[in-house]
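Sanity check

After download, print the first record. It should look like this:
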Amino acid sequence: MLIRSCKKTGELLKYSRVKEEKKGQQMDRELAQKGIDAYVDAEFPLNIFKSWDVVMNFFSEVEQKTDEESQEMYDKLPDEVMLYRGILAKEKFDTKLGASWTTNEEVAKMFALRFSRLGGTPYIIKGEIDKENILYFTNARQESEAIINPDSMIWMDYEEL
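Expected structure tokens:
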């Protein structure tokens, strides 16, 4: 099973089984919404999804690009979108990047610094992506979050905070 559990519904989301049964078809909207809700509600999405690859695979199968409340923000994004990701590197900068990015640099700084008292080096990664390559966009947690495959970035750079 690729997705562990959805605390909101208390159900197991059997994404891998469903994916095998529906190869070549769009994901069922109900299953997609459960996965989206689980992801958005989770402070640490990898507690639900096993890896960033699973996150990217899941959202690449989701038909909708945003939620109803975030549609206006999504529509206003330019064709090339500047994104930021805040990370805290414990030993060295890891080039394996996650799928959760933001259009708001201050949000990225918050994520980079929130556990810095535990040690490590905070970084902000920034780059551009074509809007069409954003897998899913939500502002449900006021984080202007874009879920992407980092390999789709046009360019990236980083700076230590």
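If your output differs, re-run the checksum step. Summary of this record's structure: The longest helix spans residues 29-41.
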